[in-house]
Amino acid sequence: MTTTPKVFYTATATATGDGRNGHVATDDGLLDLDLATPKPFTKAKRTNPEQLFAAGYAACFNSAIGQAAKQLKVRVDDSTVTGKVGIGALGLTGGFGLAVTLEVHLVGVDDETARRVADKAHEVCPYSHATRGNIPVEVTVTTS
Description:
The protein is α+β, with helices and mostly antiparallel strands. It has 2 domains: 47 residues, N-terminal domain of TfIIb (Single Sheet), CATH 2.20.25.10; 95 residues, K homology (KH) domain (GMP Synthetase, Chain A, domain 3, 2-Layer Sandwich). 30% of the residues lie in helices and 29% in strands. The protein contains 3 helices and 6 strands. The strands form 2 sheets. It has a 3-stranded antiparallel beta sheet with strand order 1-2-3, with no helix packed on it. The protein has a 3-stranded mixed beta sheet with strand order 4-5-6, covered by helices on one side. Strand 1 and strand 2 form a beta hairpin. Helix 1 packs across helix 2. The longest helix is centred in the middle third of the chain and has 23 residues. InterPro entries: KH_dom-like_a/b (IPR015946), OHR (IPR019953), OsmC/Ohr_fam (IPR003718), OsmC/Ohrsf (IPR036102). This is Organic hydroperoxide resistance protein.
């Protein structure tokens, strides 16, 4: 069963043109980009939806790291999250699908604590809620 959140903020963006080779802009004008289909082995001249999703998921998950650390009463000196979003053919089922890797780096905690914080963040992150059971998401953790 899906639970509807009590929404306190709504982001609004509109895509125009030829989809992946079109344009996307938010209603407040803060994001206003031409898009391009990702092409492996060539240097991109415009961003693509997978990059936007990777950036959004990484930022959201990094916020969830702070919330998770607070809930677990753990002090994390610093954190970074690198989001990697892959797209590819689904094979026998047809169409395309996504796969995500989140590379979490935490400073000031041991490996076991870092894993607990990352696992808790994965429980509370809204992007993780949205993707859970829909696409594979791998969370790796390193420390220093």
